[in-house]
Amino acid sequence: MPANDACTPRPEHHFTFGLWTVGNVGRDPFGDPVRPAISPTRIVEKLAALGVYGVNLHDNDLVPRDATTAERDRIVSTFKRALADHGMCVPMATTNLFGDPLFRDGAFTSNDARVRRYALQKTMRAIDLGVELGATTYVFWGGREGVETNAAKDAQESVKWFRDAINFLCEYVRAQRYDLRFALEPKPNEPRGDIFLPTIGHMLAFLYTLDFPEMVGLNPEVAHDQMAGLDFTHGVAQALEAGKLFHIDLNAQKPGRFDQDLRFGSEDLKSAFFLVKLLEDSGWAGMRHFDSHAYRTEDEDGVWEFAAGSMRTYLILKEKVARFNADAEIQALLADLRARGAAPGQRVRYSENEARAIRDERFDLDALRAQGYGYERLDQLTMELLMGVR
Ligand code: DIG
Ligand code: MN
Ligand code: MN
Questions:
Q1: Residue 357 belongs to domain spanning
Q2: Mind listing the pLDDT tens digit for each residue in 143-186?
Q3: Is the previous residue joined to 191 through a cis bond, with omega within 30 degrees of 0?
Q4: How far is the CA of 291 from the centre of ligand 1 (A)?
């Protein structure tokens, strides 16, 4: 791997990995773990050496469910030392509300009120841990919030239970005076047959029904939108435009399959390019978090190749974005579209004069019907740039 070229990751690129990503031991529904666990301190050391900015974690990625308070404090202080030794931070934390069999009917939306209350207890403790480690974003992925049969659960009540939980936890964060924002992560299914609030659109609509919507945004994930057959960049653009892109999970996915959490850019390169273009052209300064893992075939060397490849692909695509923005022929085609009205900021606002002007405007409708837009040439040039011949 050439060192110090434009595609060598550095902390200022804001790349992050969850402990559970590079720590994935390769278990799957049909097979046992294939790799030994990598300790959180070794993960911090190895990621720092790769130019990573920070690590994220679920509570139980670091502190086992059955740890005593003394064990918890010892584990946390060892981890903090590793972070300090290697100049790494913890931008995001979250709760594992999906591993314990206790959550098999859901956490915040379990039919059992005792489970819903335990989920709040576990999350308050996990929020305390995240804040102690310096996290300013807290993710909620409702992996078990759903059903296999609609006979089991009232879908309206489930939304209310989920809202109660997020409202309760927003109040907790405010009462504790924590500097923390919540990021909701949608997914359409898996591990539940269907998961509530399955897409960016569902989550955006939901968050505005909360008591403190200003505290809550989104953590969209590439694979989760692609599982739903959606254009991920469109969803991210809508969240960004609404000021609600608080975090993002980057990975790759083949259409029509289970959540593969593949290395970023390793599948649909064109959609990865337009996602990087959106994030870079908009100047979004958030964490570029890779929620993905190495193939089950890999040993530990393969895990670090996965991590390095994730970031290198992002930076190569970032270079391609710069080439796209500097490509004279591409920009000439875009300039023509901007001249017709595609330029940012060309909007219509109601006024009596404007309504009268539009009412009286004369259009050459035949010309409008006949005009071409040049998108075939524009997309061909884009593809040639991605294929490395421009
Ligand atoms: C899965 O995509 C989920 C969990 O890994 C975690 O809760 C969240 C944070 O990235 N993503
Ligand atoms: Mn996923
Ligand atoms: Mn995720």
A1: 327-386
A2: 999 999 999 999 999 999 999 999 999 999 999 999 999 999 99
A3: yes
A4: 7
